[in-house]
Amino acid sequence: RAAFPPSAIVEACGSYRRGAADCGDVDVLVSTPGEAENLCAVAVERLAADGFLTATLQLTRDSTVEGSQWMGGCRLASLGRPELTEYTRHRRLDIKVYPTRSRSFALLYFGSGQAFNRAVRLWATRRGYSLSDRGIRKCTRGKNDRGEQVVL
């Protein structure tokens, strides 16, 4: 939490949010009222310097489609017992950063199960909309554009 500004909302998503007994990785959603583009990279640098992040699989800084993400491995500190460090397991961690205006869509996408997610997207498609983790758009048939953003 300390790696992000106080105005950011940091939430566990994925299987943890759904209440699953086991989870393969930890998904963290960060939403911020400010610019989301560099927030992920800055937080990753800080968490890596602290020794929490141990491996980077992917770091995406996408300035054309607001937001960014980091995927990799992490390891909790051995709680002041350096002799246990080598036995502490590494875990998969995904950090996804979005502007606040996309938070509800990102929560739906990363916090819901696969079947529910597909059903909601199909429902939107049948009504002429395209639903993603970044928002909902009115589809325009016959045009090669992304459609108009719907403001909720």
UniProtKB/TrEMBL annotation:
It is an enzyme of class 2 (transferase). It comes from the Eukaryota. This is DNA polymerase. One of its GO terms (molecular function) is metal ion binding. DNA polymerase that functions in several pathways of DNA repair. Involved in base excision repair (BER) responsible for repair of lesions that give rise to abasic (AP) sites in DNA. Also contributes to DNA double-strand break repair by non-homologous end joining and homologous recombination. Has both template-dependent and template-independent (terminal transferase) DNA polymerase activities. Has also a 5'-deoxyribose-5-phosphate lyase (dRP lyase) activity. One of its GO terms (biological process) is double-strand break repair via nonhomologous end joining. It is found in: Nucleus. Its EC number is 2.7.7.7. Residues 106-143 form the DNA polymerase beta thumb domain. Gene3D superfamilies: Beta Polymerase, domain 2 (3.30.460.10), DNA polymerase, thumb domain (3.30.210.10). It catalyses: DNA(n) + a 2'-deoxyribonucleoside 5'-triphosphate = DNA(n+1) + diphosphate. GO terms for cellular component: nucleus. SUPFAM superfamilies: Nucleotidyltransferase.
